[in-house]
Amino acid sequence: MTRIHENIEAEEAILGGILLDPYAIDKVVDILIPEAFYISAHQIIYRAALTLNQQGLGTDLITLTTWLKNHKQLERVGGKNKLAQLLESTVSAVNIDVMAELIIEKYQRRQLLAIALEIAQLGEETATGLPQILGAVEARIFSLTQSKGDKFQPQSIGEYLPAAFINLKQGVTPGLTTGLIDLDSLMGGLQRKDLIVVAGRASMGKTWVGCYLANQVALQGSPVVFFSAEMSKEQLVKRFLAMHSGIDSQRLIQNKVYKSEWDALSSAIGALSELPIIIDDSPASSQNPTRMRSVLRRTQKERGQLGLIILDYIQKLGDRAASNRAQTVGAIAGACKDIAKEFNVPLIALAQINRGVETQANKRPCIADIKDSGDIEQDMDIGLLIYRDEYYNPDSLSKGLMEINVAKNRNGRVGVCEVWFSPENGNFRSVDREKTAPSWLRC
Question: What pTM, to 2 d.p., does this model score?
């Protein structure tokens, strides 16, 4: 086997990263299998690290050395010196998932070459019937495409029916509530595995919708990961503080707080500090689905099953200078849908609407108005379009109201509902029959 189909340096860097960073293995556990390592000693070390990780133990130098020694495998990998050498030669585990993909590719190429040799030998087997040979060849090729760590396995409908029956018998709405009665009635709440796109023009309140839903899910006790490619952590935190304190967010961003507001702000800080909201404000240039997966794996390991993922906003990601921008954004939307399924969680992706709606008499957007839409419409399960008439019409009779148009709903109804919304502090409320504005809008 030629060296073109191995990468010893990458293998050593991966193992060194696992020894260096206690969370590094979570970035590769769904990608890399022990057999993918070219060096047998590396296979043993990685398999030991997987075992320790499955038991909830660390993969540091001392723990891994002890495990290998207790299982009489330490000398087989080169002793303590080998492990120490791996650790000392590693500076960081930042790109460990990228190197894991490289190792898997090398492994699959080695497997492909081995299968090709087998096929050549089978072709010479004149004593064996051609259907049997073709069946054997198909089986070998198929085995190459299967990930041994794949958690999504084919299942007969009969195997799933008992779980479906239990869910039906319990009669509990499967989605997490949004806290907005009419919106929940249309959507059925936030459903796990769904990609939900919230789209609107600038200043319509997209980020406020994301913050509100993040806060709602966190209040229900489920961890929320907020990927903010648009705002910094500080700006986003001050939005959450505005929601909890009722203080104007613009003044909070400018660090202007009245004396009479300090008690409310202190209470908001106390309440917000208890909520499981994790913010990642990595710039759009370095944010991508692979990195998002790494953050989510790490968070899930630390916090348990995730409740919601939010991306603000989808068009910020990817190559902004790409010749086919719509195709690029569509690929990101597809990856977001995959992430929602992989982590069994609703993913809300905020999106911009094309500025062309500004020239229309009726400025309410439709799905086709989503900027660089590409395959976004195809991949989304639910599409929410937001509109505030008072933004365009100062004398509007709908002051304080936001229209949320459920324009696409793969598994439910479509329709428009109204909610009370304060753009100053991000408060949302359901609309009662009399359309009585809440106190924070009447002031």
Answer: 0.65
Which amino acid does the sequence have at 323? S
pLDDT of the residue at 299: 86
- C-alpha 373 chain-centroid distance: 20
Q: Report the CATH number at residue 238.
A: 3.40.50.300
- Tell me the H-state helices in 21-95: 24-28, 40-54, 61-70, 79-88
Domain count within the chain: 2
pLDDT beneath 50, residues of the chain:
1-2, 147-149, 442-443
State the angle between helix axes of 289-303 and 96-123 in degrees (0 to 180), rounded to the nearest 10: 110
**pLDDT value of residue 142:** 63
> Which one-letter amino acid corresponds to residue 195?
L
Residues whose CB is less than 8 angstroms from the CB of residue 168 and which lie 6 or more positions away in sequence, other chains included:
none
Closest by CA to 425, choosing from 229, 201, 274, 211, is 211
Contact 432, 401 (CB under 8 A): no
C-alpha distances in Å from residue 264, one per residue of 103, 259, 276, 333: 54, 10, 21, 39
Q: Are 418 and 429 contacting, i.e. CB atoms less than 8 angstroms apart?
A: no
Q: Which residues pair with 199 in a beta bridge?
A: 351, 385
Q: Specify if 390 maps to a domain.
A: yes
| Domain span at 242 | 181-442
User: How many CA atoms, within 13 angstroms, populate the side-chain half-sphere of residue 408?
Assistant: 20
CA distance 195 to 336: 7
Q: Answer yes or no: are the C-beta atoms of 259 and 347 closer than 8 Å.
A: no
